[in-house]
Amino acid sequence: SAHQGSIETFSYDEDIVKKFVLATIIWGLVAFLLGVTIALQLSDWRLNFNLPWISFGRLRPLHTNAAIFAFAGNAIFAGIYYSLQRLCKARMFSDTFSKIHFWGWQLIIVAAAITLPLGYTMSKEYAELEWPIDLAITLVWVVFGVNMIGTVIKRREQHIYVAIWFYLATFITVAVLHVVNSIEIPVSFLKSYPVYAGVQDALVQWWYGHNAVAFFLTTPFLGLMYYFVPKAVDRPVYSYRLSIIHFWSLVFIYIWAGPHHLLYTALPDWAQTLGMIFSVMLWAPSWGGMINGLLTLRGCWDRVRREPILKFLAASVTFYGMSTFEGPLLSIKSVNSIAHYTDWIIGHVHSGALGWNGFLTFGILYYLVPKLWRTELYNTKWANTHFWLGTVGILLYMMSMWASGITQGLMWREVDELGRLAYPDFVETVIRIVPLYWIRALGGLLFLAGAVLMTVNLFKTIAKAPRDQKIEIISAPSLKTNFGLLFKDRPHRILEGLPTVFSILIVLAILVGSIIQIVPTLMIPAYVDSNPFIRPYTPLELAGRDLYIREGCYTCHSQMIRTMTSEVIRYGEASKPEESMYDRPFQWGSKRTGPDLARVGGKYPDLWHYRHMLDPREVVQKSIMPSYPWLAKNKSDLESLPKKLKVMQMLGVPYSDLEIKNATSIAQAQALKIAAELEQQGIPKGSENKEIVALIAYLQSLGKLSGGKK
């Protein structure tokens, strides 16, 4: 045709796809095994084994990072590297960049697997990794982006297909989210403090956290759906127009929805309302995408019943529809008041992670492995068995967590006719749901068993592949853009021929909501200016706070009393914005397996906290909290406090130069006072230099930092 050049020959880089496929399989098993492990730890606290590096608080962030960035991340890259080359009719821009991307990403995963169990964490959901790893993520992500965009630029197809729209949106938005949320000041090699604090940090974190789900676990998988579902059934996507509406509305609306994680909190009401409204609006584009995916399968339902690949793909799109119906539902304030902080949210997250991301990945793996290794699947019956094991496992998981979460939410808020809590002891609401934790663990075991069966099946498939595989040579015309012809096309087709303009529009779409939400919050004086009625943490309290974060206490406890009658009765006055103005990072929490701690300071004597950390059952008979005996053995790191206070001072916390200079001695004096009181109550002498004393100092400060009334 008039806009095509001479015929060129080339080959696709299938080796990089194979690498990402194998990494997906291996890291998937790791992520699922970790998930089953922490599910069992919640069912029986003794499975923490009193060991720090495998305790629930440290393994839980490792599980989420392994599931999102190791399993799902490698699956995304495998699918993108396979489909992008074929959609562009071009080899990847740089084989070297492909290799750097692969090995860099695996090293980042290994670094996370080492640092998180050792307690090096930022404690921010899906962004727990410390600053050196954040820098590595940035560099590797740029390499991936350059490689992808370079491939799009040198493509041999005039228009870029819908899957590539989603790939570009993923790269651009994740880059913005990661950079903005990861701005932090290092204290040492594996310790830093974020520049944001309190309300600011909460808003930025959940702008990142919700959109990490949106643009790492949704948009790239939608791109893969738009490629692999039509490929698997050998027919075009149901509606091109619907895909346009789906893409642009999703990209624009999703970025606004983060504040729905912070309803009834100290976040300004206008931001909460915006988050809720845009979350509800997400119903339309999300279901538009689901309909587009399912109707692409129309007329193929007999094949769906017989072929495991189509089973997984059809079920994954169905789970996408279910989870994207439930998400907006949970963002409605009246529903959120019951669901937030409960296991209902855990069930919702896993319906998406296991059903949508997991099943789509399994379908893609069953599709890719035979094609890449040029052989037939080893055992189709095993693949069908895997589907049913996974499906039953997900359903058990979801239903047990729905029941658990609704039970928790209703028990927490139930008040009798005299205005008293029906269940004043928090542990009562915990022991009721432990049987459901066992069901959740069983569901996870079934899902893991299915993944193990898939792994054996795929590796046997690879083992029987012919060894002397020849490289496939592709012939295609080079692309020479004819702008006259291009502008005669339909309006959106014009954009598809102009990837730079297309990318700029994506940037504008995500920046509108981001700027409108974040900038005003950063400029509110109540959050930024020093408040003379709120004192900063003492050096020892700051040391204890870092230990609290290290042990992952934030995974089970919140520090945010919501503006709900039942919460005020249970915990005290609702939390105010200024109370967390020096909290870096913020500790509002996202799940309550234990009670809120925002006003726990002074509620119990120091001895109670000492005994509670060493053996929670001594003071709360039916507690499922792990024991932390190492806190009474490990020596506190007080020597690093001057550096920590110096960084905090740089960030606006009103520490004087004298306090910074004498931080260690100030902490030692406070520790001696606490240790002396403990010694009088029977605790062995010499506890003043132990970590547990610093942690007690921090816990006793919560809710007690106000020095007066404004």
Number of helices: 28
Q: What's the mean pLDDT score?
A: 94
What are the segments in which pLDDT stays under 50 over at least 5 consecutive residues? none
The major pleated sheet works out as: 2 strands, antiparallel
Considering DSSP H and I runs of 4 or more, what fraction of the residues is helical? Answer: 55-70%
What is the overall silhouette?
globular
Structural class comes to mainly alpha
What is the CA-CA span between the terminal residues?
76 Å
Counting DSSP E segments of at least 2 residues, the number of strands comes to 4
Radius of gyration: 27 Å
Largest sheet: spatial strand order: 1-4
Strand content: under 5%
Describe this structure in words.
The chain has 28 helices and 4 strands. Strands 1-4 form a two-stranded antiparallel sheet. Strands 2-3 form a two-stranded antiparallel ribbon. The mean pLDDT is 94. By secondary structure, it is mainly α. Helix 1 packs parallel to helix 3 and helix 2 packs across helix 14. Strand 2 and strand 3 form a beta hairpin. Helix content is 63%, strand content 3%. The longest helix has 34 residues.
Keywords:
710 residues; mainly alpha; 28 helices
Nutshell version of this structure?
By secondary structure, the protein is mainly alpha-helical.
